Amino acid sequence: MTSKSSDPHFSSSNVDPAELAKFSDLAHRWWDTESEFRPLHQINPLRLNWIQTLVPLSGKKVVDIGCGGGILSDAMARQGAQVLGIDLAVKSLKVAQLHALEAGTQGVQYQEISAESLASQRAGQFDVVTCMEMLEHVPHPAAVVKACAQLVKPGGWVFFSTLNRSPKSFLFAIVGAEYVLNLLPRGTHEYGRLIKPSELADWVRDGGLELAQMKGMTYNPFTRVYAMNSDTDVNYLMATQKPMSS
Ligand code: SAH
Question: For position 8, what pLDDT does the model report?
Answer without folding.
Answer: 36
